[in-house]
Amino acid sequence: MTERRQKYWLAIASADHVQRGRAEGFMQVCHGKSAPLRRLKQGDGVIYYSPAITMGGRDKLQSFTAQGVISNDAVYQVDMGQGFLPYRRDVQWNDTMIIPIRPLLDRLELTRGKSNWAYPFRFGLLELSEHDFKLIAEAMAAF
Asked: N or C end of the chain: smaller count of CB under 10 Å?
């Protein structure tokens, strides 16, 4: 059996949601769905992009807001009350700066040459190339 190579992921959420996850050592995506989280494995790298400060807000941020590594292979559910039972993954978050995406648009394989660069972000979680992950993480001073 061959060992799975490390993968890199871009998760999308408002900055206030990312901040809570960083403080408590977890991530969740796609309004708490489990299927996207099951694609990630222990040791994978993850970066959060936040289009806004608050969910659904008009307070544009368009920045990378967190970077870390998936801690284990457990996907688990929590009760946040009022019938909301989202799934989460544990993440070891790195101490990084929040950085705007715009200066990197022409350097990232994901966005280079695309006028509608944010369109794929609507899926909530997408795989990043190693090049893009390292470029963003370096800009965030994660290395």
From this structure: N
Quick one: pLDDT at residue 142?
A: 56
CB 32 within 8 A of CB 75: no
Superfamily of domain 8-139: ph1033 like domains (3.10.590.10)
The encoded tokens of residue 49 equal 């992009």
Q: Helix %, strand %, coil % for the chain, to 5?
A: 25, 30, 45
Domain spans in the chain, listed from the N-terminal domain onward: 8-139
CA angle 109, 26, 34 (to 5 degrees): 75
**One-letter amino acid for residue 36 of the chain:** P
